[in-house]
Specification:
Blueprint: E1 10-20, E2 23-28, E3 34-37, H1 45-51, E4 59-64, E5 78-82, E6 86-87, E7 97-101, E8 107-115, E9 119-123, E10 133-144, H2 147-152, H3 156-165, E11 174-175
Antiparallel strand pairs: 1-2, 1-3, 1-10, 4-10, 5-9, 6-11, 7-8, 8-9
C-alpha cells in the first residue's frame, strides 16, 4: 500500500528548484525527480524536517539558514597539500572540484583554491556552506522503502546515482597525506 504521508521509512520523490541569493543553483524536474529516504539524513536537515507529514502533490517553499542546510563555512576545512601528494589524470585548475581518496579509502570532494609549485590549497567545505538557501519543492510520489533501502539508508535510485558519480578505480585522485 502506498503511504499517505512522509514519515521515517518512506521514500519520497521530489521535484525542486534550489536558489541562493535569487540565483538558481539546481533544478530537479517532475520528469526526473530525486528520491530520498525520510529519516536517513539523505537531504539537508531543514528540508527533511519540513517534508515530514507532507503528501504527494504538496508544493511549498522554504528558506533555510546555514545551520539547517549545509552548515557554517569552516576555515579549518581548508588544507594545503603538497602538490606531489595529489595524483590526478586531470590538469589542476583553481576553482575546479576534485574527488580525493585518503589512505583509509574514504572519498572526499574539494575545491581547489590555489596552486603553487609546492602545494595545492583545498577547500573541503560543502559548496553551499555558510549560504542561506531556498527550496521550492513539489512532492511527486511516495512509497515504502524496500528492506535493502532501509539497510543501506538510501533509495536504490540514489545509490545507483552515487555509483555512477564515483570515478573508476584507476581514475581516483589519491591523497597521500
Amino acid at each position: 500500500m502506498t503511504p499517505e504521508k512522509i514519515e521515517n521509512g518512506v521514500v519520497a520523490a521530489l521535484a525542486y528548484t534550489l536558489t541562493v541569493d535569487g540565483e538558481i543553483i539546481e533544478e530537479v524536474t517532475t520528469d526526473d525527480p530525486l528520491e530520498y529516504l525520510h529519516g536517513a539524513e539523505n537531504i539537508v536537515p531543514g528540508l527533511e524536517q519540513a517534508l515530514l507529514g507532507k503528501r504527494a502533490g504538496d508544493k511549498f517553499s522554504i528558506t533555510l539558514q546555514p545551520e539547517e542546510a549545509y552548515g557554517e563555512y569552516n576555515e579549518e576545512l581548508i588544507d594545503r597539500v603538497p602538490l606531489e601528494d595529489v595524483e590526478t589524470e586531470d590538469e589542476l585548475e583553481v576553482g575546479m572540484i576534485i574527488g580525493l581518496e585518503d589512505e583509509e579509502g574514504d572519498y572526499y570532494e574539494a575545491l581547489i583554491r590555489d596552486i603553487t609549485p609546492e602545494y595545492v590549497e583545498l577547500d573541503f567545505n560543502p559548496t553551499l556552506a555558510g549560504k542561506v538557501i531556498t527550496y521550492n519543492v513539489e512532492v511527486i510520489a511516495l512509497r515504502d522503502a524496500t528492506q535493502d533501502e532501509l539497510q543501506l539508508g538510501i533509495p536504490m535510485s540514489l545509490f545507483d546515482m552515487m555509483l555512477e558519480e564515483m570515478p573508476e578505480e584507476d581514475e581516483h585522485n589519491h591523497l597521500h597525506h
